[in-house]
Write a structure and sequence with these properties.
The complex is a heterodimer. By secondary structure, chain A is mainly alpha-helical. In chain A, 73% of the residues lie in helices and 0% in strands. An eight-stranded antiparallel barrel of chain B has the order 6-7-8-9-10-11-12-13. The longest helix of chain B is centred in the N-terminal third of the chain and has 40 residues. Classes of the chains: A mainly alpha, B alpha+beta.
Chain lengths: 186, 382
């Protein structure tokens, strides 16, 4: 594996190539950050097809606005933020078009947490993807990416109360799915 | 405790994505980037063409021939009779006339005089025959302001003479062709248009009353062909089953709507080529074809469901602002009947159709309009 310093130089060279709209540099950058970007898109999408659409929407924005990238900040963080925004844009219409199904309360999980620790990436991804776009987006933003409800409300153009409510419902749904998974395993 | 555990479980579990690179995703990306390059090239060509049209228009409007700007004085020669010696009294009156036209008419006059035995020559003969003195020729020069030169009109009232019996008669030296009106110059003009129409989604067979109002600027290229461009603010109403909607952002509702009513505010930017195929007197017919770009300022959709009571308002009404723009997305075809009212104004009636070249709005629907526009044209300048 190339030393870190060299890799940063290589990425910087790709970025410069992308500024010149050099197609080979664009392809290198795309390939290098594919896994990171696709991982984010899969978490926000219903399925892999939607995730691929979000991925290319995001990379299109990356190539279009790469001149605006501030080289003093990590490129990973910049590209991650763009992918998140692309996912929000992709489902923006759906954030308002959710089914108004209420979950008033949910049962607590069993205390033997170690059982859930055995769940793999694909199991967890499948559970997140099965949430409605509104629940999934808020869960991703709050629980995985660490945004506050105020920030989420601003990003999604919803109220803080709606953000909290969606997070609560998302957790409830996920607990329900974990319980079903546990029962299946038992 | 439970909340934190759930969050942590998913955060850790999804941190390391198990994703393998798929070349087909890059192929799709590359296709999109290539398409963008083509669009940029097209926009450059369109911009250069538009700039050329604008420059040409400015040139046509502002450019005046050299002679118009450097003709401070006009020289007109008249024959002034000497009192009591002439039996011939030429009556020539000069009022507003353009320097070029004076020159042209003088040339014509010379030719006419040669052809019809000029009054002067005729006068000389008469004078010689009747043994009277030939009146001296005097040159009168008017200094006519530049601003008035275009308004000048030459009038030749003819030559008044006495016949042998002492009766006066006037012999006109002006020929018929000199009395023809001066042909109007090609000038750009502005059109205010109101265009009510019936709009529908192609294939849906439901028509809704819509309409627009706007301004167009037309530049004639010659006496038959002209180019028009401008902007119209249009309200497009249309209704169709949801099956005609192909939105880019897929909705994940459990039940699809049955029908959609749309009301959209659209900025229509047309560019049309016009061909005048018939003219008689003050009336003319023009056929036009062109292309419009639609900028969707606001789109409002009302979704209807089989079981509407089961849905709340947020699922029934949807609004999008400024998200969908369609460059050259609609074809324009029309025929115009135009009637000239006076030198500056004319009115027109224009049956038209607007045909979809691409999907329009959030639903990417194929919008079609047909209607009759009413317009007033104004031609500025002198």
């Amino acid at each position: 594996m190339a030393p870190k310093e060299n890799q940063e130089d290589v990425i910087a060279a790709w970025i410069q190539g992308c500024v010149r709209e050099d197609r080979s540099a664009q392809k290198e950058l795309y390939g290098h950050f594919y896994a990171l970007a696709m991982g984010i898109c899969l978490r926000y999408a219903n399925n892999k097809i939607d995730a691929a659409s979000i991925l290319n929407d995001g990379f299109y924005k990356v190539f279009l606005h790469i001149k605006r990238y501030d080289a003093t900040k990590p490129f990973n963080a910049w590209i991650s933020r763009i992918m998140t925004n692309a996912a929000i844009d992709f489902y923006r219409a759906n954030l308002r078009f959710m089914n108004s199904e209420d979950i008033l309360e949910h049962e607590y999980l069993q205390s033997d947490h170690f059982i859930y620790d055995t769940l793999n990436y694909q199991d967890l991804l499948k559970m997140v993807q099965s949430l409605s776009p509104a629940y999934r987006t808020v869960f991703n933003l709050y629980a995985i990416e660490g945004y506050t409800h105020e920030e989420i409300a601003q990003m999604l153009n919803i109220s803080i109360g709606a953000s909290k409510s969606n997070l609560f419902k998302a957790r409830g749904k996920l607990m329900e799915m974990l319980r079903v998974t546990l029962n299946d395993q038992v | 405790m439970e909340k934190e555990y759930i969050d942590e479980l998913f955060k850790k579990g999804l941190a390391n994505s198990e994703v393998t690179y798929e070349e087909e995703h890059w192929t799709a990306m590359e296709r999109r980037l290539r398409l963008r390059s083509k669009q940029i090239k097209f926009l450059w060509v369109a911009s250069i063409a538009s700039a050329a049209v604008i420059l040409m228009t400015v040139f046509l409007v502002l450019w005046q021939p050299e002679v118009h700007r450097h003709s401070p004085a006009v020289s007109v020669t008249v024959v002034k009779p000497v009192k009591d010696t002439s039996i011939v009294t030429p009556h020539i009156k000069a009022t507003a006339i353009h320097a070029d036209e004076i020159k042209l008419k003088q040339e014509r006059r010379k030719l006419n005089e040669e052809r019809t035995k000029l009054p002067l020559a005729y006068m000389e003969k008469r004078v010689d025959r009747q043994r009277v003195l030939l009146p001296p020729i005097k040159t009168i020069t008017w200094n006519i302001p530049e601003s008035n030169q275009k308004l000048l009109v030459w009038q030749d009232l003819g030559v008044e003479e006495e016949d042998a019996l002492g009766e006066k008669k006037i012999t006109s030296v002006a020929q018929e062709d000199q009395l023809q009106p001066i042909q109007s110059k090609l000038k750009p003009y502005v059109t205010l248009t109101w265009a009510p129409d019936l709009t529908s989604v192609q294939g849906a067979e439901r028509q809704s009353f819509s309409g627009g109002i706007g301004l167009l600027y037309t530049v004639p290229l010659n006496h038959r062909i002209s180019i028009s461009g401008g902007a119209l603010y249009a309200k497009k109403n249309y209704s169709s089953p949801y099956s005609f909607y192909k939105p880019n952002v897929r909705l994940t509702w459990s039940e699809k709507p049955t029908n959609v009513d749309a009301a959209c505010d659209v900025l229509d930017i047309p560019i049309n080529l016009n061909y005048q195929f018939y003219q008689r007197g003050r009336s003319k017919f023009t056929a036009s074809g062109g292309i419009s770009s639609y900028f969707m300022l606001r789109e409002q959709y009302h979704f209807a469901y089989a079981n509407e009571a089961a849905y709340d308002q947020s699922v029934i009404d949807y609004e999008v602002r400024g998200q969908n723009n369609h460059l050259f997305g609609v074809a324009n075809l029309s025929v115009t009947f135009e009637r000239q009212l006076n030198k500056r104004f004319s009115i027109g009636i224009q049956p038209f159709v607007k045909l979809p070249l691409t999907g329009i709005g959030y639903g990417q629907t194929k919008l079609m309009s047909k209607g009759i526009a009413v317009s007033v044209n104004f031609k500025g300048g002198k």
